[in-house]
Amino acid sequence: TAAHVKAIEGAGELNAFITQTPEKALTMADASDERRRKGDVGKMEGLPIAIKDLFCTQGVLTTAGSHILDGFKPTYESSVTANLWDAGAVMLGKLNLDEFAMGSANITSYYGNVRNPWTPEGAEKPLVPGGSSGGSAAAVAARIALAATGTDTGGSIRQPASLCGIVGLKPTYGRCSRWGTVAFASSLDQAGPMTRSVRDAAIMLGAMAGHDPKDSTSVNVPVPDYEAALTGDIRGLRIGVPAEYRMEGMPEEIERLWQEGITWLKAAGAEIVDISLPHTKYALPTYYIVAPAEASSNLARYDGVRYGLRVEGESLDEMYENTRGEGFGAEVKRRVLIGTYVLSAGYYDAYYNKARQVRTLILRDFQDAYQKVDAILTPTAPSAAFAVGENMDDPVQMYLNDIFTVPVNLAGLPGISVPAGLSAGGLPLGLQIIGRAFDEETLLRVAGVLE
Ligand code: GLN
């Protein structure tokens, strides 16, 4: 813990942390030593980790990367972080992220952008770490935290993991409790581990997961021993390769990496099966209706009364307007506008209801595929890390980053990104494995072979 605290001090230019908690870390580490002396050793005893600043941490500033939560210190602890502390983990601090987890480059944070530690020395502009869990990915990649929590609504664990060369796992919807995690799109949000290795992801997921009566969508199924799933043996497993993910204009290096992944899995004894997920092309438009709709409803609570920032006005309405006008950044405002539009009377059926129906079709595509295969292999993201400034004036271009990850959230399935190779420019690229609902074990086993 002391070594990590020191390493964080020396890595300020990454801007990975919004809040560092060195005293808390050292106190927690002492308590952990004490438990160890008594032979009381948890699954993550003494391991120094950091937390995406979307998880409420009792008495510790929680910002969601937004100005509107200025000074918000929750009086409660999120269930996921509580589980981690119960397992013996030690908190180093709170990590930077896109504002309310909306973004793919960690450039919408009120606390500034995060630098990808893979940025070449002397580069004119830093590379982005991906997003929204950009601080988490950068901290783990730079070795200033042993592991980090992330959240994934449309790719926010897997895409930054791919861009920073680490492992990122989005569990099945309902596997980890959402209680005490700042909500973005409640039917899509899921917490998960971001780690250096597949084994670390297995251990950390085991600590984070579990039924929680405080989250009605948390599912009451046993949490398996994920580490035991890492047998290294994938002989006879059927791995699907979806035709629709072979997108037009996909960079050749992504296509090549995918092909290599197929070859490796085949060599390890898996059977490769061509599959079709016909509604894939509707996933991104569907997501960008469902997610903003839910966000606009979830973000209604930031009104200057209950949390954080208040900007006074002549009347109550004006206070609301001033607070939200100053408190939210441009991307959040864009989402709230889209969300309220698609939910408004007259448009609800045309957009929101239609999107919900298409979402079911996307889920059925996966269900059909899982009649024939045990897991699916795809690229994680359509490109390696790009420089700050690229893709940035066109929100739609930015939304394309999520093209391979979003369908997984819409279907509520587990997905993992594993570092699998380097781009022509020497930057990390990840491959994604998508599993059956609540079958994180197969996911981890296949990922362990790809790693
Ligand atoms: N990049 C996507 C978005 O901006 C996904 C974000 C996420 O998974 N939290 O909505």
Automatic annotation (TrEMBL):
This is Glutamyl-tRNA(Gln) amidotransferase subunit A. Pfam families: Amidase. The gene is gatA. GO terms for biological process: translation. InterPro entries: Amidase, Amidase_CS, Amidase_dom, AS_sf, GatA. Keywords: ATP-binding, Ligase, Nucleotide-binding, Protein biosynthesis, Transferase. It comes from the Bacteria. GO terms for cellular component: glutamyl-tRNA(Gln) amidotransferase complex. Its EC number is 6.3.5.7. It is an enzyme of class 6 (ligase). GO terms for molecular function: ATP binding; glutaminyl-tRNA synthase (glutamine-hydrolyzing) activity; transferase activity. It catalyses: L-glutamyl-tRNA(Gln) + L-glutamine + ATP + H2O = L-glutaminyl-tRNA(Gln) + L-glutamate + ADP + phosphate + H(+). Residues 1-444 form the Amidase domain. Allows the formation of correctly charged Gln-tRNA(Gln) through the transamidation of misacylated Glu-tRNA(Gln) in organisms which lack glutaminyl-tRNA synthetase. The reaction takes place in the presence of glutamine and ATP through an activated gamma-phospho-Glu-tRNA(Gln). The active site is at residues 52, 132, 156. The keyword Plastid does not apply. Belongs to the amidase family. GatA subfamily. Heterotrimer of A, B and C subunits.
